[in-house]
Amino acid sequence: MSAPLLPSLTLHLWGQHIAWALVLAALTGCLLPSARAPIRRLCMAMVALAACLPGPAGPVYWIALAYQMPSLTSVALALWWLRADVQGRRREPMPTSLWAVAAALGMVLLLDTLALLPWAPLYAWGFGPQALTGWMLLSAVLATQAKWRPLGWTGVLIGLVFAVTRLPTGNVWDAVIDPWLALLAIGVLVRRALRRSHTKPLV
Description:
Helix 5 packs across helix 10. It is globular, with a radius of gyration of 18 Å. The chain is 70% helix and 0% strand. The relative contact order is 0.14. The termini are far apart. With 203 residues, the protein is mainly α.
């Protein structure tokens, strides 16, 4: 078996800072929903600039000790959130089905990490070309459907960025999903389920 293709150290460090800058900026904006737009955007910009600081002076150095880098999907979500916030546009909620897929994939990979799946190691497949090919084909199919076209093209772009850079780890599953994104998906599903149960009329 050939050695997996991994990102170069320089590219990984640059990607790490840029990815965390975008994700932390979006997270800061989410935590300040009631703040005035100029103040919220100033805080987001300050957090993003701090994330670009190299070494122990910046927060990314310490975050990366426990959690190397967010997935490319998380970066894409952060960019989607930031673009809507800067343009002052109303963000359409992500479909529940997509959050369900993210949560399910995260749980399957967790079970694979714990060696609780009966088949061959799923995570190891992510280093081979089959997983990337499957992701690209699925994204291309979605891109042909009017309802899913933006998400399909986003998936294609994520696959292309991964193919060129191999970020974050050289494994396609780490580019598609990460533990925090999976936990976010589970939280969104629980929140929507609770809202639905509270608004459901009593018969």
